Amino acid sequence: MVDMLQKKVFRDTRENRWSFFAIVCICSLGIALFSGINLYVSTVENEVADYYKRANLADYWIYKAEISASDLDNIRSLAEIQEAQRRKVTDISLPGASGAVLHIHAVDEAAIINMPELLDGSKLDGSETNALLLDNRFAQAHGLSVGDRITTGEDDRQTQWLIKGIVRDVEYVYYAPEGLTIPDYHKYGFAYTNASSLPDVAFNEIILTVHEGANLSQEEISNKVRETFEGTNILSRHHQTSYRKVADAMTGVKQIGLLFSIAFFLTAALVTWITVSRMMENQRQHLGTLRSLGYSKKKITGRYALLGGLITIPSMILGWVIARYLIAESLYSIGITYYTIEATGVTPFTPHFFMSVLCVAAVTCGATMLSCRKSLKLTPAALMRPKPPAHGHRILLERIAPFWRSLSFSGKIVTRNLFRNKVRMLMGLVGIIGSTSLILCGFGLMNSINAMLDKAFDETVQYNLEIKLRTPSTGEQLSDIYDMLNSARNIDATMAFSVYLYGEGGNVQSPYLVVMDDRQKSLNFKDTEGNAVHLPEDGALITPRMANALNVDVGDTVTAESLDGTVIALKVASIVDFPVGNEVYIGKTAFSKVSDLPFLVRTLLINGQELDLNKLKSDPRISLVETKEEMRDNMLIVLESLQGFQVILILFSGLLAFAVMMVLGRMNYYERTRELATLKVLGFHRNEMKRLVLRENIWITVFGLPFGYIIGTLLLRAILDQATTPDLEISPLIAVFSIAVGFVFMLAFTMLVNYVMGRKFKSIDMVASLKSVE
Amino acid sequence: MADIIFNNVSKDYKMGEVSIRAANQVSFRVGSGELCIILGPSGAGKTTVLNLLGGMETATSGKILFAEQDITTMNDLELTDYRRYKIGFVFQFYNLIPNLTAVENVELAKQVCKSPLEPEEALRIVGLKDRIHNFPAQLSGGEQQRVAIARAVCKNPDLLLCDEPTGALDTETGKTILGVLSDISRKMGKTVIIVTHNSLLVPIANRLIEMKNGKLVRESVQESLADLEGIKW
Ligand SMILES: Nc1ncnc2c1ncn2[C@@H]1O[C@H](COP(=O)(O)OP(=O)(O)O)[C@@H](O)[C@H]1O
Ligand SMILES: [Mg+2]
User: Fold this and answer.
1) Domain layout of chain A by residue ranges
2) Atom 16, ligand 1: residue with shortest CA distance
3) Does B87 touch chain A (CB under 8 A)?
4) How far is the CA of B46 from the centre of ligand 2 (A)?
5) Which of A5, A386, A577, B233 is the most exposed place for a label (fewest CB within 10 A)?
6) B54 in contact with chain A, both atoms CB, cutoff 8 A
7) What strands, in cross-sheet order, belong to the sheet with B159-163?
């Protein structure tokens, strides 16, 4: 049964339907943002985690030139090891397909770790030769399917392979080998075959899983393995490209999303709270009447709490639809193009959703009940009398006589209105500051990314072509490649290998140690103050994010351990501000002082024009040829999740701003109809009324904008702090143009709302509004 | 002459299916400079007539002439200007702007007029001198009504329309307010129309219009006016 009081609340809602609708919009946007991003992240994380489990992803990868069956047994006999398998791993190239490379794995027994997942065709039964299971992305890119044959190898040593099955593999969820930043399915793929099909290749890799209970650190496991098995490289999951990239991306999105949606939610909650309280304030006479009719306080409060429910339930539904079908779906559809996993679709619910709904319920019901309780403390008679206007005689500004005198009459009225109605001003300010900061943050994200790329690629990077070699080589071995490059202005050969870096307090990082010529001209290093830094004769250069992560400073020494266990002590000579790359730089001289490893070229950094890139690309020793422009573009694609955010950010903040302005405008209008009717009776024209009543909205916006800018900068900084990975560091920057656009946007919204409200002035019924004391 | 002529004026309020005739074929004439009282029980249609005359509502049928201008044919803009330049309104509940001081409330009206009085002058006329820098909430009902009258007078209108101006006041205060209104009529030569349900006010008026159920039941002219002091309340 709906009782009369409930009926009244429903009817109030209908009368205020537009404000009500705007509040529902604000709340649903909050819910949507908060839960939508989380839905996406949870979906991917769960799918990936599931997949890792299902396909039994290895915990460690061990590399050695040759691994015998007894080596494998030794590893297997270690207590902590659950399972271990050995594989032959090598790259085979497809001459026909413009230098495409297949990373081929061969096992001599059924795979139990990193099990490939068959999508089409059939598995290998172990007996066939020259049959393989092919990467489905690679197959797609080349239009290959089960039963097709592919040819690999050079001129006289070609092999024909039969594609027996199309597979997906857990090691290659995000396959970007050889320092690629994004997958290139046309160029790189993987395949599985029987060990017998690769007679010339030795077993050279062991993959293993650790017992789930074993809580040994990565370091301890590595040591154990190295004890048993000298001279090996060991790689943990956290070093494995695919695993790391997926984890980093998800953490980034999650943390940024959390920060942003909390900021958004806070604005929404504050605006909702104030609006609902104001709606209740406008109900005080009704409350008085109800009380005098004998309704109990409890009953009245309970019924008004219904208002909270009336806001929460539609917000919940609308919020979920937006979260699920707009935010999560769009992020997911972008994500799934890079992550090779079984797309099971977005999870419909996460705890975040219920949490945000609960928050909305708490805010709306809390606000109604609290203001109800506050009002109901008064006697019914006191409630029915109009609320005495605040006795705050004069605003502070009036004491500044010269200023006050200089104001026009309407200026005085507007100013006084602004300052005497603090709740109204507060609500406006919160809304404006919140939405301005979010919009600016959205614009700022892009500005910051571009500024970072400019800094990295225009200021620091002085080469315009990078060539990676498949295997480390001596200078003499590369003489013909140098010949190809003889038109280049500068070539720096560098050596690079993965290391674990141990800093203070157990902090570990896994960067590349890059050894370069002392007088290299490829990277124009600068310290954080912008002074040029050269490679020192002692010690290495690290980035600020590395210094932070390791908790070290200039002069400290960090221990670097290469994957084969060689330990090098590195003194931090200087901290250089290079925003991209997870690398530590050291000069040849300094390197020779701390290590006796020979200098083998891995990468060539080239500054030159009109080089024959195709010729370079077709050289079998070269695994990657990438121009500066390509690096930059790929970087941008990696940052796509951030850019996707930016769109959501700007869109949502815009909607929030609009809804807030709308609520503000309407509340102001309804609370002041009596005043407006009086002005109308006095014969004020519409634009004169606007000047008196609506101009304050513009002032509120103008006051709010600078604060919005400040908060926006802080928010952007916090978000970018979260987005900082070992690979990437973005400093907050909001371009002047963006600020201008953001400000204009907000002002335009304010004016639009003013315009809409101004039109309503026409329909004010003077007689009805002035009939009695409201 | 700035006479007021009502010619068969009717006003219907439509409320869904039913329609209420709040003013039914009302005809009367008020001369310039007169003080006219519209008397009648609650619901008689007095306010309706006043609002029609003030250009706050439009008549359903009939003609209303003020200074030979038919206000029933005016559009929105013309009606606004009519209210702006010709009419001063005084309400039962004052309707002052709460966050403007007394003098500022008066100044507000001055803003939109062609030949206004000075706000201080208008406040002096209504007998409010000391508390002109107070906010409405700091003033008594009588003082607030004085401010409201000052606001209307300040516009220097041809016609002052007062709807139950003493309705919310005690008798003594009501009396002084009426004194102010009758002074405005007699000394300043303004046409003043006062709506009331209190027949005791009748003696101070030049003209009396009595209404009942939306109809005009009697119209009378009094030549000899009683002094305010002589009236027993
Ligand atoms: N806006 C309105 N809608 C419907 N009926 C109205 C409206 N205004 C007045 N009435 C009706 O018109 C009649 C006359 O009202 P009114 O002029 O206010 O009377 P008075 O001022 O003499 O008390 C009343 O019966 C009232 O119910
Ligand atoms: Mg009335």
Assistant:
1) 1-59+247-388, 65-231, 421-459+635-774, 465-608
2) B45
3) yes
4) 6
5) B233
6) yes
7) B87-90, B159-163, B191-196, B35-39, B207-212, B215-221
- Return the residue whose CA atom lies nearest to atom 3 of ligand 1: B13
Model pLDDT for residues A674-730, shown as the tens digit of each residue: 888 888 888 888 888 888 888 888 888 999 999 999 999 998 998 888 777 777 788
Kindly report the average pLDDT of chain B as a whole number: 87
Cα gap A576→A571, rounded to integer Å: 14
For A109-118, A547-556, B194-203, which range has the lowest pLDDT when averaged over its residues?
B194-203
A197 contacts: CB under 8 Å, gap ≥ 6: A106, A129, A130, A131, A132
The reported pLDDT for the residue numbered A362 is 92
* Closest in B111, B138, B155 to A409, CB measured: B111
Q: Mutation target for A interface from B52, B91, B108, B145: give the one with most A CBs within 10 A.
A: B108
Judged by DSSP in three states, A518 sits in coil
Residue B144: pLDDT over 80: yes
Query: Which ligand is in closest contact with the Cα of B43?
Result: 1
Which residues touch A28 (CB under 8 Å, ≥6 apart)?
A: A314, A315, A316, A317, A318, A319, A322
Give residue-wise pLDDT tens across range A234-254: 788 887 888 888 888 888 788
Task: Place A341 in a pLDDT band, splitting at 50, 70 and 90.
Answer: confident
Residues of chain A found within 8 Å of residue B108, distances taken between Cβ atoms: 409, 413, 679, 682
Q: Which of A312-321, A500-509, B44-53 has the lowest mean pLDDT?
A: A500-509
Ligand 1-lining residues (CB < 6 angstroms) = A 768; B 13, 15, 20, 22, 40, 42-48
Reduced to 3 states (helix: H, G, I; strand: E, B; else coil), residue A620 is coil
- Determine, for residues A683 and B81 on separate chains, whether the beta-carbon distance falls below 8 Å: yes
3-state secondary structure A261-288: HHHHHHHHHHHHHHHHHHHHHCCHHHHH
Ligand 1 atom 24, closest CA: B43
Check CB contact under 8 Å for B112 and A683. Answer: yes
Ligand nearest to the backbone CA of B38 = 1
In angstroms, the Cα distances linking B153 to A479, B125, B135 are 103, 9, 19
Percent share of chain A, pLDDT over 90: 19
Torsion of CA A633, A639, A642, A648, to 10 degrees: 40
DSSP β-ladder status, A131-135 and A117-121: unpaired
Backbone phi, then psi, for B28, in 5-degree steps? -165, 175
- Ligand nearest B164 Cα, by number? 2
DSSP summary character for residue A197: G
Q: In this structure, how many other beta carbons lie within 10 angstroms of the beta carbon of residue B152?
A: 30
How far A426 CA lies from chain B's nearest CA (Å)?
18
How high is the pLDDT of residue A774?
A: 43
Rounded to two decimals, the pTM is 0.78
Q: Do B84 and A682 touch (CB under 8 A)?
A: yes
Which residue among A764, A765, A767, A770 has the greatest number of ligand 1 atoms within 8 angstroms of its CB, and so is best to mutate?
Answer: A767
pLDDT for res A392: 47
Residue B157, CA atoms < 13 Å, CB-side half-sphere = 31
Q: How big is the A-B interface in CB pairs under 8 Å?
A: 76
Which of B57, B74, B84, B95 is the best mutation test for A, with the most CBs of A within 10 A? B95
Are A421 and B91 within 8 A, CB to CB? no
* Per-residue pLDDT at A180: 67
The two structure tokens encoding residue A636: 């941008």
- pLDDT at position A387, please? 65
Q: What is the pLDDT of residues A369-381, one digit of tens each?
A: 888 888 888 877 7
Task: Please tell me which residue of chain A has the smallest CA distance to B153.
Answer: A682
Domains assigned to chain B? 32-58+75-230 (3.40.50.300)
ipTM of the complex: 0.90
